[in-house]
Design goal:
alpha/beta; about 30% helix
Length: about 475
């Protein structure tokens, strides 16, 4: 069993409109240290959300290493200088398993196993979101041809598992360019062109492909949901450590103009929008962009034109990101960071299933699944385990920004909620986590305020209240 306390539920058969499904006979999982965990082979409902609801799959940060060799050392001598472990010819010890090791990037076997397990549980997603970082991040030799090959293998895996008609909406990650983090408007056009050529296997909208090939951003309306527009922006252009964009260049690639126009025009047409990118708008990004982004989201919220949901990657953690323009104001939007699909640093490879209302496009629930790689290596197969449902875990009635605001407040005020969030954040709950008042305030402020100045003000405000 999993070291986080796997739980095999009693099952009963229930009926849904298009077939049969297995659901738990009592609740949605076992409560272990504030975190609900359940091991299932199939689940067509998500804690109060009918199984017939449409859903999408979201995963990120695969970091595929095609040179991974099962049986090679995963504790090796030269990892600190950019020569990764789990490769043939490594000097070291400990034997790498089939599906990965915490010191290495992901093997192809893990990618194939995760997608096959996902298809067994969720064979007909409306579409798939991949928020970037397909390439390895431990190998200094991960140059452009390696990145191109990784994208091809990812899409080959999609083609083997999901119907070719299933849209995949990808975003660029900071490891999907070379050198890492560096991406200027008009630069890297050859790699970007080859990347978008692979994307075209499942992204067929001509205008979207043209936009993506220019600067890495685009929008697309899925054929399955004509009232929804997926807006994918290129967060690399605003990275604080992207030195190919001059500090005085405020709108590289004219992406700000494009993003604002796209969101406003969608609202005029009556379309709802979802926002997709690799980096959440917070401390990794330039402060001027984060401030501009939060202001735009606030303005759009006043006109009922803000995105219904936001999807991020990058950190490898399961995180909540709120967009606010000032202290103690309601959030304009709530974004979610999906944990990585890589086992690096011992994080369980994960993906998320997001259920939504087919009329309003509002998120109804999100359910996170993950893989115990230790068990997979022992059993010789990948099993996706249901980790938690957001609505069930936090007692939410919906996934609106207002509801996530309440969750953030509970994290600040209640240690049990904060500890549960920290356990979920690592996608591998431990029993030795605690979070005192200072810890909770820092956690609340980091969730609520992506702009560093607002974060500092948030902490300072709490400090001042403590001194009264």
């Amino acid at each position: 069993e999993s070291r986080f306390g796997g739980f095999e539920r009693t099952k009963r058969r229930t009926h849904r409109s298009s077939g049969n499904a297995w659901v738990g006979s009592s609740g949605c999982g076992d409560l272990r240290g504030g975190v609900r965990v359940v091991r299932v082979r199939c689940c067509w409902c998500a804690c109060g959300v009918a199984g017939a609801r449409p859903y999408v799959l979201h995963f990120s940060d695969l970091h595929l290493d095609l040179a991974y060799v099962e049986g090679s050392p995963y504790d090796c001598h030269y990892a600190a200088i950019g020569i990764p472990c789990c490769h043939a010819g490594n000097l070291g010890h400990a034997t790498a398993g089939t599906y990965g090791e915490p010191t290495c990037d992901a093997p192809l076997a893990l990618l194939n196993g995760v997608l096959e397990a996902a298809h067994n549980l969720f064979p007909e997603p409306d579409f798939i979101l991949f928020t970037g970082d397909v390439a390895p991040h431990l190998d200094v030799t991960a140059i452009a041809p390696v990145i191109e090959e990784d994208w091809k293998f990812l899409y080959d895996a999609f083609d083997r598992v999901f119907p070719t008609s299933t849209l995949v909406a990808p975003a660029l990650g900071n490891h999907d360019t070379y050198p890492v983090n560096q991406f200027g408007a008009g630069s890297h056009w050859r790699l970007l062109e080859k990347t978008v050529d692979v994307w075209s296997r499942r992204l067929t909208d001509t205008r979207a492909l043209t936009e993506a090939a220019n600067h890495g951003y685009y929008s697309v309306v899925p054929s399955t949901r004509p009232g929804l527009r997926i807006v994918v922006y290129n967060s690399l252009l605003y990275l604080s450590n992207n030195y190919e964009v001059p500090v005085n260049e405020t709108d590289p690639g004219s992406q700000k103009v494009w993003l604002e126009d796209t969101l406003r025009d969608a609202a005029v047409r009556g379309e709802r929008t979802w926002l997709v990118t690799h980096h959440a708008p917070r401390n990794e990004s330039r402060s001027d962009f984060v401030e501009w982004f939060n202001t735009l989201m606030n303005e759009l919220t006043q006109k009922d034109a803000a995105p219904m949901a936001a999807f991020f990657g990058d950190s490898h953690m399961d995180e909540l990101v709120l967009s606010r323009t000032a202290l103690d104001t309601p959030s304009a939007i709530a974004g979610r960071v999906v944990p990585s699909c890589s086992n690096y640093n011992g994080v369980y490879p994960s993906l998320r299933v997001m259920y939504y209302d087919e009329l309003t496009m509002e998120p109804l629930d999100e359910v996170t699944y993950h893989v115990n790689v230790t068990r997979a290596n022992t059993e010789g197969t990948v099993t996706l385990e249901k980790f938690y449902s957001a609505r069930e875990q936090y007692g939410m009635t919906d996934l609106s920004a207002a509801s996530w605001d309440k969750v953030a407040v509970h994290i600040r005020e209640d240690e049990a909620t904060a500890v549960a969030y920290l356990r979920l954040r690592s996608s591998d709950p431990k029993s030795d986590i605690s979070c005192d008042e200072l810890c909770r305030v820092n956690l609340y402020c980091s969730i609520s305020y992506g702009l560093p100045t607002l974060y500092d003000q948030c902490v300072a405000e709490w400090t001042a209240k403590r001194q009264l």
